[in-house]
Specification:
With 360 residues, the protein is mainly beta. The protein has helices at 8-17, 36-39, 198-202, and strands at residues 5-6, 57-58, 61-68, 71-78, 83-87, 90-94, 102-110, 123-129, 132-144, 148-155, 161-169, 175-176, 188-196, 206-207, 240-247, 250-257, 269-275, 287-294, 297-309, 313-319, 328-335, 340-341, 355-358. It is built from 3 helices and 23 strands. Strands 3, 4, 7, 8, 9, 10, 11, 13 and 22 form a 9-stranded mixed β-sheet that branches. Strands 12, 15, 16, 17, 18, 19, 20, 21 and 23 form a 9-stranded mixed β-sheet that branches. Strands 1-14-2 form a 3-stranded antiparallel β-sheet.
């Protein structure tokens, strides 16, 4: 049975009355009032400590996309909705406030490779209209099952009408290798005009899946050529595949590159490509350590550096001595992904134990 599609107005009515309404006509008086169902729609019962199908799946629409130097920038929107921020391993729920009008999202990617750019330096969305500045906030790096990796938050506007979003991207502080070395050094600003219309917002799709709470994920939306942040498939990545491990429901693929054309340094390069299950969305902003033991002795113990590479994508890597058959490699998560999460991701990628593999 396919999940029902309805508008946000109809969803609110179904929550309030205990029924699933097929039209919004009888809810015209509800409009954009901030009822409790708007601020905090249903959560799946018995949520696992893993990725799960949310009780409510919201679609999104595009306001526009442009470029700023080598950056590709897209501005998308959906209903204002809750999300969870992470500090260390502790989550904090951010609810919809009374003045929030919509959830704005920015996708950021490299126009030459299509790689999504999860930047530690942050991204700011400034919104202006004919009267001047309306609001300016740092957008959170976020994970969403349908919207992938993006930067976003809930925003308050000044009624319906014409606006301009100025997206400011800070210079990249991450290590960059290959063709990315020396790129993305400078800050950039992209300007995208948009019209806020509540009828258009209310037309964004809503799903009430019948399998809410099940360990699975909604399908990521591919819109207008906007990347959702998928990392490369394991079989397309360079190097010897040392193993696939799952920890805290995050999927780690570990590789060793011995012929990296010098871009990783003179020694072999050990790296981890981390992704979500089901949708293969990048898991950035973690702290990972690697330990290599040989015959009971530690021969390498250091952090894996967050790195952007055009071929490997966003990954965690370090130069290491030669690995030998029988060596044991342990990957330790010192900091889980410090990104905000939409429903379905907030319980995953938090408690992350060590994973080990033997070199064959």
């Amino acid at each position: 049975m396919s999940p029902p599609h309805l508008s946000r107005r109809a969803l609110l009515g179904s929550v309030a009355t205990g029924t699933l309404l097929g039209t919004a006509g009888c809810l015209q008086t509800l409009g954009f009032q901030r009822q409790s169902a708007w601020r905090d729609p249903p959560l799946a019962e018995d949520r696992p400590d893993a990725v799960y199908v949310p009780a409510v799946i919201e679609g999104m629409q595009t306001y526009g996309k442009t470029t700023a130097g080598r950056y590709g920038v897209a501005l998308t929107y959906s209903y204002p909705h809750r999300f969870w921020t992470l500090s260390g391993t502790e989550t904090s729920k951010t609810v919809v406030e009374a003045d929030h009008d919509l959830h704005l999202m920015v996708s950021l990617w490299d126009t030459e490779t299509g790689r999504v750019l999860p930047l530690d330096s942050g991204l700011t969305i400034e919104i202006r209209n004919a009267d001047g500045l309306v609001t300016e906030e740092v957008a959170y790096p976020m994970l969403s099952q349908t919207m992938g990796f993006h930067y976003g938050s809930n925003y308050a506007l000044d009624g319906e009408g014409e606006y301009e979003a100025r997206v400011r991207v800070g210079g990249v502080s991450l290590r960059r290798t290959g063709e990315f070395a020396g790129e993305f050094e400078s800050a950039a600003t992209a300007v995208i005009p948009f019209t806020f219309d509540t009828d258009e917002l209310h037309s964004v799709s809503i799903e009430r899946p019948t399998n809410a709470g099940v360990r699975d994920a909604a399908m990521a939306m591919e819109m207008d050529g906007i990347p959702v942040g998928r990392v490369p498939t394991a079989d397309s990545l360079a190097g010897r595949h040392l193993g696939r491990r799952t920890v805290g429901d995050a999927v780690f693929h570990t590789f060793l590159v011995t012929d990296g054309d010098g871009r990783f340094g003179p020694e072999p390069y050990l790296y981890v490509s981390a992704r979500t299950p089901y949708n293969r969305i990048v898991l950035p902003m973690m702290g990972l350590d690697a330990t290599v033991r040989r015959d009971g002795e530690t021969v390498f113990d250091d952090a894996l550096t967050r790195t952007l590479d055009p071929d490997l994508g966003y990954h965690y890597g370090a130069s290491v001595p030669d690995l030998r058959s029988g060596d044991d490699v342990t990957i330790s998560t010192t900091v889980p992904p410090q990104v905000a999460r939409h429903d379905g991701y907030e319980t995953a990628f938090r408690e992350m134990s060590d994973v080990s593999m033997a070199v064959e």
